[in-house]
Design a protein that fits this description.
The protein is α/β, with parallel strands linked by helices. The chain has 2 domains: about 5-125 and about 340-360, NAD(P)-binding Rossmann-like Domain (Rossmann fold, 3-Layer(aba) Sandwich), CATH 3.40.50.720; about 125-335, Dihydrodipicolinate Reductase, domain 2, CATH 3.30.360.10. Helix content is about 35%, strand content about 20%. It has 12 helices and 14 strands. The strands form 2 sheets. An 8-stranded mixed sheet has the order 8-9-10-7-11-12-13-14. It has a 6-stranded parallel sheet with strand order 3-2-1-4-5-6, with helices on both faces. Helix 4 (about 75-85) packs parallel to helix 5 (about 100-115) and helix 5 packs antiparallel against helix 12. It starts with a strand and ends in a 14-residue tail after the last helix.
Length: about 400
């Protein structure tokens, strides 16, 4: 079986984070791409040897393309997934699947009608320690999950942003970009089906008018409860609790958040900020190619602690630390030699082995429903019962 041939829509931030994966994993070959930035298209052709097309339509119509990787801004995921389905292409789409449940359903229905597969990722629920914890829980050795605690403090809101990334209606803020990670992780560990959400959100900086923080209590059909906190205004960095390993699985300076704020203060206006973001992404003048060295730790999304009936599981960047009646012991995760190889594991399993995706359309629509419930609960002050929930995938 040959490499899966991918066509890419969008060569921005999401694609930039996947470049090490695509360059290092022989199971995929990038054969086509479109991005409105000419420099990014040129860099794609030079780096990957694929065809730089003049439109998204041309990528989806390209007979060399088997799967379309949709890495465009959140609000146009739906248009590009529908376009790929019309051309009979399988789709790997970045999280969140969409910004509304109706759009999620349209995407799922279109792919099913076309007979094509739909995988949603990268989300941090693909991370090796999360998948390992999921396996340990499924073994039944420590009984049922009763409580999950997740916390993440980052500089998210002060990284360079386009204007729409600070507009919640257009998918801006932490509820779509960051809760989509955290809720996916919690659902995978606590049983999948969320029955209630009670949340509070924070809009603390008038110059960045969207949600920058939240805390939420989730009830699950399994009987488990999870509490999740995210602070994208963080001066504190929870990577200090992750052995100094950053979200991307590499050592991180404790001065990172201060540096992020300092760079933003030097930006003069919205246009300059958007330009700074573009230039730091793939094909931009400030783009720095990723290190070719294999990481010695896994990617993560902050501290996560799972309390089961007979033990606690603490996720770390290198595995799972188990505390039970015998004491404590460490179960190592296999650190991928290629970052985010777990995404390609699922892509290969579906595309070449005919398996059902774990992160399929219905699973990811349920995560979007939880993110929307988070926003609605914060707005109304009520417990919200999210719709479209599904159990854990096999």
């Amino acid at each position: 079986m040959g490499a899966i041939k991918l066509g890419v829509l969008g060569l921005g931030r999401a694609f930039t984070l996947m470049v090490p994966t695509f360059r290092g994993d022989p199971r995929v070959q990038l054969v086509a791409a479109f991005d409105p930035r000419e420099g990014a298209r040129t860099a794609f052709a030079d780096t990957f040897g694929g065809t730089a097309h003049a439109s998204a339509e041309a990528v989806c119509a390209d007979p060399a393309v088997e799967w379309v990787y949709v890495a465009t801004p959140h609000q146009i995921h739906v248009d590009h997934v529908l376009l790929a389905a019309r051309h009979g292409k399988h789709v790997l789409v970045e999280k969140p699947l969409a910004l509304s449940l109706d759009d999620c359903s349209r995407m799922i229905d279109a792919c099913e009608a076309a007979g094509t597969q739909l995988i949603v990722g990268h989300s941090h629920s693909f991370n090796a320690p999360v998948l390992l914890a999921h396996e340990l829980i499924a073994s039944g050795r420590w009984g049922a999950v009763r409580l999950v605690h997740a916390m993440q403090y980052t500089d998210f809101l002060y990284r360079p942003r386009r204007p729409e990334e600070l507009d919640t209606a257009l998918g801006g803020g932490v509820a779509f970009s960051q809760a989509a990670h955290q809720m996916d992780v919690l659902r995978l560990l606590a049983g999948g089906e969320v029955t209630s959400v009670r949340a509070f959100t924070g809009r603390w900086d008038p110059a960045r008018p969207t949600e920058g923080a939240y805390t939420a209590l989730l009830g699950f059909a399994s009987g488990a409860v999870a509490n999740a906190t995210y602070n994208g205004y963080g001066h504190y960095d929870t990577d200090a609790l992750m052995d100094g390993v950053g979200e991307m699985g590499r050592p991180k300076s404790p001065d990172t958040h201060r540096q992020t704020r300092a760079r933003l203060r030097a930006v003069t206006d919205e246009a300059a900020e958007a330009a700074l973001k573009a230039e730091r992404n793939f094909g931009g003048s400030l783009y720095v190619p990723p290190s070719a060295d294999a990481p010695d730790a896994c990617q993560h999304f902050g501290p996560v602690l799972v309390s089961c009936e007979r033990g606690d599981l603490r996720l770390t960047p290198r595995g799972v630390l188990v505390f039970d009646d015998t004491g404590s012991h460490f179960v190592p995760a296999q650190v991928p030699t290629v970052p985010r190889a777990e995404v390609i594991d699922e892509l290969w399993a579906v595309g070449r082995e005919g398996r059902t995706p774990m992160h399929g359309g219905r699973w990811s629509r349920a995560t979007v429903a939880v993110c929307l419930a988070l926003l609605e609960s914060a707005r109304t002050g009520a417990d919200i019962m999210p719709s479209h929930q599904v159990p854990l995938p096999d």
